[in-house]
Amino acid sequence: MLWEQLYKETAPQNMQTNNPCYALAIFHDEGHKETDVEIEVQVSVTGTYNDTENVHFITAPAMMVASSVAKGSYEQIPAIFEAIATWVTDNNYVFDGAMFNIYHVSPADDPNPENWVTEVCYPVSKK
């Protein structure tokens, strides 16, 4: 629904996405939630555009992340969460912001889950 809203509200502006375009979802809730999840979606764009009722154009700050890339269905994502958490702890980092996924190949690009490519990212900082 969020992706649909983003593209519907920006359609009159003929928004141009970057190439490659980074489409991502930021999960603002602490911990896993099944309902009432607070999610923000973003796409990288070229050019300058006017904010709409629900879409705001920003320049995101650079950040350090611990990440892992998954090829295939989203079923493997929980194991990736665990692997990243272990790496962060073992390497003297701490989580430092809301986790996000970058969808390099998503269901919008290819309906076959075997071809999806998702980068799971956690902002981190040194202890």
Can you tell me about this structure?
The chain is α+β, with helices and mostly antiparallel strands and 127 residues long. Helix content is 18%, strand content 32%. It has helices at residues 2-10, 77-90; strands spanning 16-17, 23-27, 39-43, 45-46, 65-71, 93-95, 99-105, 117-126. Strands 2, 3, 5, 6, 7 and 8 form a 6-stranded antiparallel sheet that branches. The chain has a two-stranded antiparallel sheet with strand order 1-4. The longest helix is centred in the middle third of the chain and has 14 residues, at 77-90. The relative contact order is 0.21.
Descriptive key words:
127 residues; alpha+beta; Multidrug-efflux Transporter 1 Regulator Bmrr, Chain A; six-stranded antiparallel β-sheet; two-stranded antiparallel sheet; 18% helix; 32% strand
